[in-house]
Amino acid sequence: MQTLKQLQNGELKGTISLKLSEQLSHFPVEIFALADTLEYLDLSFNDLSTLPADFGRLRKLRIFFCSENRFTVLPEVLADCPHLDIVGFKSNQIETVPPRSVNPNLRWLILTNNSITGLPAEIGNCSRMQKLMLAGNRLKELPASLANCRNLELLRISANQLSEFPEWLLSLPKLAWLAFSGNPFSYKPIVQSLEPIDSRELQISELLGEGASGIISKATWRHAGETSEVAVKIFKGAVTSDGLPEDEMDACISAGNHDGLAELIGQITNHPENKKGLVMKLIPDTFYNLGLPPSFISCTRDVFKPGMGLTPAQILKITGTIASVAEHLHSKGIMHSDLYAHNILIDDEANTLFSDFGAACFYDASDIETARKLELLEVRAYGCLLDDLISLCNEAEHPGIEKLTALRDMCMSDDVSKRPLFYQILSQLHKL
User: CA-based angle 219:223:228, to the nearest 5?
Assistant: First the structure.
């Protein structure tokens, strides 16, 4: 994090990346002195509500974040930056997205948690768009022109006011990660409660991890004269980039038991801050994340630690478990919507656990045609996982990997109808 004083003193001359958060109420004009070099600008967590009319002077700007500010209108001057690739205006007060504000060069647009009621048809001009984050707004419909965004891979429309599911989304050739829970059209099954666990029986000992929707901690559970170590997830309660925390909790519960899922023990009651939470079996510390979240460059695809490699046996075991979990979820009318390596935990023996239901969606499994298309959409995400893991294989000529490569191609087919369903994928994997 740099400072405004450094900028004003000329200490940041020639910088490529600038991040300022000092309760700024006006755009610092000194930023224009960096116009010849500046590619990344983050003005999040300030009090800005407008950008200067000559914002386009930042000709080299590629990434611009302006989240947690006071904008009510997405600035039209965003269109004046010819190389602008990624834009984030999360958690402002935006109600209006003018047609001109949608820079056609955009590849990744984040408008999560605003008050947007509609998008302009010009969004369909963004032919490079791969990632569009719209959860937590007031959208009543999506512009039909969005169907022109043939490179769109990830779309978040959860927690909006959509009265009908946009069926045409299911024909987009590259769409693989779609979250839509928390809309008026959303299917809501009856979710059975788990065993209630009084929060006073839990003693938190250490933080295990924190995500957008909640905090996971290790805890000691004292109950009925017995003591055991467990994991506890407390949901934050606010809308995330993926959707609503209560939808995540319902999906976790409805998923039930599977060897590839963390085992649920109960639901927390009597939380001192009245928050919702789950108690789970503690995952051994021998498990670690298979991948890392996408980077600015990879956009929708995971990245991996340098030098990481997997044997054919490990890859086949991991992909078999995930296919089995996905088939299990879809049999219950659940789409995980975030099938990624960074949401998969493995150990050195390739024992595998699938986690993070933050984007999960329910659908009516009795609507056979729509259910099939939703599953085929997630099959593409599975194909991307296969593609990633095959690239990590340390024995590319292995016959099993060659067959897995052919399966990957089927799963990633731009012709949605030619992709296999998960039960067919499992059948093929069993032959490898």
Answer: 40
- In the predicted model, is pLDDT for residue 335 greater than 80? yes
What mean pLDDT do residues 140-168 have? 97
CATH of domain 288-429: 1.10.510.10
Backbone angles phi, psi at 369, to 5 degrees: -70, -45
Radius of gyration of the chain (CA): 23
Please give the C-alpha separations between residue 183 and each of 35, 142, 238, 363, 371, in angstroms, as whole numbers.
Answer: 42, 13, 16, 12, 17
Integer Cα distance of 358 and 211 in angstroms: 9
Task: Pinpoint the residues of the chain covered by CATH 1.10.510.10.
Answer: 288-429
User: Could you give the CA distance from residue 28 to residue 9 in angstroms, rounded to a whole number?
Assistant: 13
Cβ-Cβ contacts under 8 Å for 297 (sequence gap 6 or more)? none
| pLDDT tens figures, 305-317 | 999 999 999 999 9
CB-CB contact of 211 with 238 (8 Å): no
Q: Say which amino acid occupies 20.
A: L
Across the range 338-347, mean pLDDT stands at 97
Chain centroid, CA 11 distance in Å:
37
